[in-house]
């Protein structure tokens, strides 16, 4: 299993950034493969969630868990079906606003690893780029520089949008990773 990390500063208060990230309804705004996220039940230590989306012309639905810890501005997540997948996100104070640090643990499926090898030279580099793109998309949403869905269709090509597909699909429990 690989571990991939990234960090970005956001010019918004930490509590506001965490509140945005902890709200499941916002996930499709910064993870383009996600179309819907919904609660599936509550347990003592986490909430179960279902995630639906589309990656590489395939729709997916998976279930996992999410634990938001507002007192520490931290989130943890994982998949019920992918035992070697999980992550954490921590929002801290930084000069001029907040810092978001993300850690992702996963082993990409062989076909995804092959694609990353082909496209990025190696899996680790592809995953690092994906983490950076996802963090950039979070920053854009929080700072108000994100493009709406209507604008995406008319003002940007797919190449211009943050491509968090390698990370985003795994972060959304996509069984393809």
UniProtKB/TrEMBL annotation:
Annotated stretches, region: Disordered: 149-177
Biased composition annotated in UniProt, kind: Basic and acidic residues: 150-163
SUPFAM superfamilies (UniProt xref): Bet v1-like
Comp. bias regions, Polar residues: 167-177
Highest rank taxon of the organism: Bacteria
Gene3D superfamilies: 3.30.530.20
One protein family per Pfam: Polyketide_cyc2
Protein name per the record: SRPBCC family protein
Species name: Paracraurococcus lichenis
